[in-house]
Amino acid sequence: MIDDANSINILNHTIMSTNFRNNMREVMKNAHRFFKVTGESFSECLKRAWVVYKLSKAMKVKTVQFFYQKVSGEIRQAFGTMREEVIHDKVKGTGKVKNDDMFKGLSEASRSSTL
What we know:
Elements: H1 2-38, H2 42-59, E1 64-69, E2 75-80, H3 84-87, H4 104-114
Antiparallel strand pairs: 1-2
Helix pairs in contact: 1-2
């Protein structure tokens, strides 16, 4: 009985540890991206990355009003949500645009080399 409880505690700790690492990775990637785009200090970019992380967590459970700054410096107001029951009919497919011309050059090149 004690071994089962220990196993569950270790498993929970491992899952929490993995989630924490993934969340930190997401925050750090965003901070680095903001740093490259804006040229602001890394500490400011890290603060913004945490705000974005908290905003995305809030958007998963409710509709949120937020303000963001464009690269040009303009500040905009927005409302957003990531709740599946609200957006399910607005998202279509995988989100990737199909490109019919993607292999056009390749197929033409293979045809001319065989002739």
